[in-house]
Write a structure and sequence with these properties.
Layout lengths: L14 E3 L2 E6 L5 E2 L1 H14 L3 E4 L5 E6 L4 H10 L7 H6 L2 E3 L5 H16 L10 E4 L13 E5 L5 E5 L6 E2 L4 H12 L10 H7 L20 E3 L2 E6 L3 E3 H8 L4 E3 L4 E5 L10 E2 L9 E3 L14 H7 L9 E4 L11 E8 L2 E8 L15 H4 L1
Parallel strand pairs: 6-7, 7-8, 17-18, 18-19
Antiparallel strand pairs: 1-2, 2-5, 3-14, 4-5, 4-13, 8-9, 9-10, 11-12, 12-15, 12-16, 14-15, 19-20
The structure holds iron/sulfur cluster.
C-alpha cells in the first residue's frame, strides 16, 4: 500500500535530530508490559544515548541512534513486539488511548489497531484516532481526527473532530467507516487535510446527535484509581529510571509528560521524576540544548531547572537552544531563546518570534522572570 501521503517519523523511518536519530515507538494500546519497558530501557542504552522522550501523542522516542545502531535497535524492539510490518502500517496505526482504560477500552483499541493495520485507506500522514472511552473523556485537547468516547448516558459514541456531537457506535470498525466518509467527502484533497477542517467546511457525518460525557480536567501527578501518575522532567526519562519504573508494574503512556504505573501505591524518589502536582518543573519546556545538539547556542535544561523557582505561578517557561524551538513548537508564556549574544525573551510566543529584550546574560534571567 502506498497511498499514505507525507510522512511522520517512526521506528522504521527515524528522524534526524541534533543529537542523532530519533526512533519513535508506538506502544500497542498505549501500554507497555514490564518486560517491554525494561527491554526499551536496555535498547536505549545499547543502541541510543540512553535518553527516552515521551511525546505529546503518548509515544516514546529513543534518542541518539546512529546509522549503525538503527538496525540492531529495530531487531531488539521487534523481539519486544513493538515494530510494525512496514512503514505504512506503522504510520496508519496513529491511535492515542486514554491511560485510564478499562477492559472495554483496551478491547476497542486492539480492534482498531488491527483494522487500521489491515486497512488500505489512503489517510493523510497525521490523521489520527483517539480511544477515550474510560470513565470520562480526558483527551479532549489532544489532536485526533476521529474519537471514540462515552456519550452523556455512558453509551459508546463515535465523534468526528470538530463536530460537537457523536453517532452511536457499536464496534471499532465503525471508526474506519467514518475515516472512509472523510475521504469520500473530499477531506484530503492531494492527500492532505484534517477532519476538523472538513467539518468546518460542510455537513457533519450522519447520526451525529449524541452529546459526549463532560470531560475531566488534565490530570496531575499523584495517585489515581489505576495506580500512580508520575511526571517526567522535560518529558524525558533516562534508561535506568525507566528500568526502575518497569519493575513497579505495567506502564500506561499519557500525552501529558506523565506515565501511569499500574497498581503502584508509591514511587521512589528518582532523578527526573515529578511526584507533586505543584512542582514548577511541570511547567518547564526545553530542547536538548548544548552540548547534545550541535545547533544549540547554550545549555538549556540546567538553566531551566535553575529558573524554575523564579517562574511565576501558573506560567510555562520554554528555554530553547536556538530559534528552531524543537522542545516546544508552540507559544509559551515565557520563551528564552539562546543566541550567540545571550538569551532573547519572548512573551506569549514561540522561540522564533520577535523578542524583547534581546541578548540577556544568564545571570540576569531570574530577575527578568
Ligand atoms: S531547538 Fe535548536 S538547539 Fe534545541 S534541539 Fe532544536 S535545533 Fe537543537
Amino acid at each position: 500500500m502506498s497511498g499514505v501521503r507525507g510522512w511522520c517519523p517512526g521506528a522504521l523511518r527515524p528522524m534526524e535530530s541534533g543529537d542523532g536519530w530519533i526512533t519513535r515507538i508506538r506502544p500497542h494500546g498505549g501500554r507497555l508490559s514490564p518486560s517491554q519497558a525494561a527491554g526499551i530501557a536496555n535498547a536505549a542504552r545499547d543502541h541510543g544515548n540512553g535518553l527516552i522522550d515521551l511525546t505529546g501523542r503518548a509515544n516514546l522516542q529513543i534518542r541518539g541512534v546512529t546509522p549503525d545502531s538503527h538496525a540492531p535497535l529495530i531487531e531488539a524492539l521487534r523481539a519486544l513486539d513493538l515494530i510494525d510490518a512496514d512503514i505504512e502500517a506503522e504510520q496508519r496505526r496513529n491511535i492515542i488511548v486514554t491511560p485510564f482504560a478499562d477492559p472495554e477500552t483496551d478491547g476497542l483499541a486492539a480492534k482498531l489497531e488491527a483494522a487500521l493495520t489491515a486497512s488500505a485507506l489512503p489517510l493523510p500522514a497525521k490523521f489520527g484516532f483517539a480511544v477515550d472511552t474510560g470513565p470520562a473523556p480526558v483527551l479532549w485537547d489532544i489532536p485526533a481526527d476521529i474519537r471514540l468516547e462515552r456519550g452523556a448516558d455512558g453509551r459508546l459514541i463515535l465523534r468526528a473532530d470538530g463536530c460537537p456531537h457523536g453517532a452511536p457506535c457499536h464496534s471499532a470498525a465503525e471508526a474506519l467507516t467514518l475515516a472512509g466518509w472523510f475521504l469520500a467527502a473530499g477531506g484530503a484533497p492531494e492527500g492532505r487535510g484534517r477532519m476538523a477542517g472538513l467539518i468546518a467546511r460542510g455537513t457533519p457525518p450522519a447520526d451525529a446527535i449524541l452529546t459526549p460525557a463532560p470531560a475531566l480536567p488534565t490530570p496531575v501527578p499523584g495517585p489515581v484509581p489505576q495506580g500512580m501518575l508520575v511526571g517526567l522532567e522535560f518529558g524525558q526519562i533516562e534508561a535506568e529510571i525507566l528500568a526502575a519504573l518497569a519493575a513497579l508494574g505495567p506502564l500506561r503512556m499519557t500525552p501529558w509528560r506523565m506515565l501511569l504505573i499500574e497498581g503502584a501505591g508509591r514511587v521512589p524518589a528518582l532523578p527526573g521524576l515529578i511526584a507533586e502536582p505543584d512542582d514548577p518543573r511541570l511547567r518547564l519546556r526545553s530542547c536538548t540544548g548544548a552540548p547534545g545538539c550541535r545547533h544549540a547556542h547554550a545549555p538549556t535544561r540546567a538553566l531551566a531547572r535553575q529558573l524554575a523557582p523564579h517562574l511565576p505561578k501558573g506560567r510555562v517557561l520554554h528555554v530553547s537552544g536556538c530559534a528552531k524551538g524543537c522542545g516546544w513548537p508552540r507559544a509559551a508564556d515565557l520563551t528564552l531563546t539562546a543566541t550567540p549574544e545571550g538569551f532573547d525573551l519572548i512573551r506569549g510566543g514561540c522561540a522564533s518570534d520577535i523578542p524583547q529584550p534581546r541578548g540577556l546574560p544568564p545571570a540576569r534571567l531570574p530577575e527578568v522572570l
